Every structure is written in C-alpha cells, then in structure tokens.
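Today's session is about reading a structure prediction critically. Students often jump straight to the picture, but the first step is always the sequence itself: look for stretches that repeat, for charged clusters, for runs of hydrophobic residues. Only then move on to the predicted structure, which in these notes is written as discrete structure tokens rather than atom positions. Here is the chain we will use throughout the hour.
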Amino acid sequence: MIGYHFSKFDPNQQGKTKFEQLLDLFMQLLTYTSGDVSEALNWMNQLDKNYDLTNDEYGMGDFIDELKEKGYIEENQLNGEIKITPKTEQGIRKRSLEEIFGKLKKTKQGNHQTFKPGQGDEINPETRPFQFGDMLEQIDFTSSIRNAQINHGIDSFTMREDDLEIRETDFKTQTSTVLMIDISHSMILYGEDRITPAKKVAMALGELITTKYPKDTLDIVVFGNDAWPIELKDIPYLNVGPYHTNTVAGLELAMDILRRRKNPNKQIFMITDGKPTCLKIGKRYYKNSFGIDRKIMNRCMNLAAQCKKLKIPITTFMIATDPYLQRFVKEFTEMNHGKAFFASLDNLGAFIFSDFESGKRKTVY
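Below is the predicted structure for this chain, in token form.
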C-alpha cells in the first residue's frame, strides 16, 4: 500500500531507522575488533541484552539479515565465515571522518592555499599594475578598460600599458603525507587502548584527503620491530603485535616513499606512545627497553636531520606523558625543525586535523 507511515516522535532517534542506529554502533565496534564481524556481533548481542537495543518488532537477527541484503557483510558459503565488504570499509572511514573532523564536501582540486602570488588555481580579489613578464591570461580586462576610459576619455578610446591591471592568483599546493603508526605492544598496555584512536585518525585522514584534497597523497606506514606500508582499506583490520618500537625503520620507509613522490611539499605525521627501543642491524635486532638507548637515539636523530635537509618536516604526536619521553621528542623535533604535540587519546584527531589544515606548506622551488 502506498502512503505515509506515522509513528511516535523519539528525540533520541534523530530521524534514523532502527537499522541505521544499530549500523552506527556496528561500525564503531568493527574498529575495536579489527574488522572481526563475529566478535562485533557478539558484543552487540551482549549490549542488546543489557540495554534493550532491539524490540519485538525488530530483533538482532533482522539486523544481521539486513546487513547481508544491503551488502555490508558477506558470508562464505563453504566455511560460514562472515566478513565485511569494501562498502563497510569505506563506511567506517566516513564515520571516522565525521566523528573527528565533521562533514566535509568533496572538491575536484587540491586546496592547500599558500597565498603566494603568481599563476595558480584560485583567483585573488586583489589587483596590481601590469609588469613586464605578466601573461595575457592574468589581465583583468574589466578594470583595465575602466582605467583607459578614466585616463583617456570615452570619445577617443585608447589603452596603454599604464592602464592595464593584473588579477593575482594564489597557488593551491599539493602535499604528500606519510602517516606512521606505532603498533608496538605498548599501544595496548597499561589499561589503555591507544591503537583504536590511532586507527580512527588514520581512516579519517585518508577520507579527508581523498574527498577534500584528491590531488594530495597519503601513505600509511606501521612500525614495530620492522616497518611496512599498508593500504587505506587495511586499517580497520590493523592489530598491535608483540613488537618493540623500531622508529628508525618507520622513518627510513617513510623517507623512501616520499622520495618517489613528485609533489614538492612533503611531510611525515608520526603517532607513537613510547621511545624507540629497537634497531635492525643486518639480520639481527638490537633491542633495549630500559630508558633511552644512545645508539638507537643517535640513529633517530640522524634521520631527523636528513629529513630536514630534504625539507620533510616531521610532526610527532606523542600519546604519553613521561618526562624523559617528552625530552626525547623535544630533541628529535629540534633536530628536524618539525612539530610535536603531546596529545591525549580523546583529542588526538583534533590535533592532527588542526595541524594538517593550518600547515598548508609553501611551494618549494
């Protein structure tokens, strides 16, 4: 029957259907369970038992069926394993972006403005007199014709070089960013889940760049005993391992990635909660978890100096407050001339977003 369905107004629902409400929770839980659908659904059943998420008309079984029908999860017919789909992976990234950064509209061009006058993408309202070397495309003919009429009269129209005005344009730079995420064991120690906020930030930053700054590039590097790149779609499945913290390996890989990028503006964001404790020398791992090891620290400082020479600033987001760790970060930052933030888990995303948006790098020639 075609028509309208009226129901009692519930201010807590904010116009969302029961499926949409449960989907928001399901997406959040998938981040905590590293993409494990079965574990996330078990959590939802437990929450439903304690807080009555469903009712007699719409149960958890209905929600699971609708997840399958709408393409959020798929079941392997051979072994019964349930996995999330690419649609869900993108949905998690979008929700992370909305949670941390707010809703951002998609654009078709890079949008890091440098406010450096010259040929560029964005028209500047300011004008200036014509100078030798200015191109024809830069001439503001409306202003120039008005000047000619004022200077020479309307009856005998003449335009001279002094009448010409140039409309400035601002460059919109492109930036290549490498986001380094510490996945050492300490990211889940001491009763704090530090890896989940880091994953949310990575997904939100990836969604931000692909929607608002599509000309930019973002590479994700994870580092423990070793370092390796991961794809944006792999972040929900990221887990902490029984690793030490090989910051040197992460920096070396990040530098290698940025060397191959053609964008003139490059930067490294590093999320970590501890000091470097590991080096790989040949096939052997050199490890020391007790305090700051001078041998490991010197290698880190050398890489910070190399990045400075290559004009690659490193912004470190330290999610730990130990005084000796802060001293290390301060020395590391001074060596690179980068930035450091000592961020708590609840404002990590705000710090990274603010730095990414406000640090619109100037074009390097």
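Discussion point for the tutorial: The first strand starts at residue 73 and ends at 75.
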